Task: structure prediction
Amino acid sequence: MYFETRELSKEFGGLTAVKEVDFAIEKGKINAIIGPNGAGKSTFFNLITGLHRPSSGEVFFKDQEISHLSSNKIAELGIARTFQTTNLFERATVFDNVIVGHRLRTKTNLLDAILRTKRCKQEEEQCKEKAWEVLQATGLTHVATKIVTNISQEEKKRVAIALALATDPEVLFLDEPTAGINPDETNGLAGLITELAQMGITICLIEHKMKMIMQMADKIMVLNYGEKIAEGAPEEINKNEEVIRAYLGG
Ligand code: ADP
Ligand code: MG
Result:
């Protein structure tokens, strides 16, 4: 068992956003979560990455129960994520966005930064190297010095992924990585995500674009009203009656 949730639930007041979800994320694979709006997909990610505490249930990563840990601690274990809405510093360069994102995630404390100790300087060099490395991995070196406002929507999505990669994650959670971009750009991003998986990063993504998911995912979980209604390989999901009903609202 690599990464799994056990009867994971989250209630907001009277609303059960996630209900007793058992899901195993397979190592080195592209794991996908689909489901209508409001199905609890983002909440599921928030529970796994420590932004929300579960109402009940557990999250296990490599035999450790992690749902009580802070999001920083969870990140240190090698779990990174992107958010449904990308929050970048629009007036800074792509490179600086990655640097700042990386600093916010590394452990140099404020006093260190102010005193500019040797350790901090060393870390600064490492920080820059890391930034170039992740810009390369995400195909962004040619826009590194551009101001974020001036890059394309797809490139912004790539920057968000670059930020997450700066922590050297083992597992990467992507919340609707292709939302709001055109089909060509979607293909580019799908290619990037597939490459990351080939590099050995375990991927778990939330996605609405069914065609893309059916082509790239190894495994799919379908959520509806907070509950897992189906799980399996794309070909199984494709012909699942309950899934078809949930999507068509019939
Ligand atoms: P999805 O990502 O599948 O569209 P969400 O996980 O964002 O769905 O939301 C699932 C349900 O939980 C929705 O009904 C939403 O309104 C509710 N919800 C999500 N976050 C909160 C919150 N912080 N407080 C109250 N309700 C929330
Ligand atoms: Mg969502």
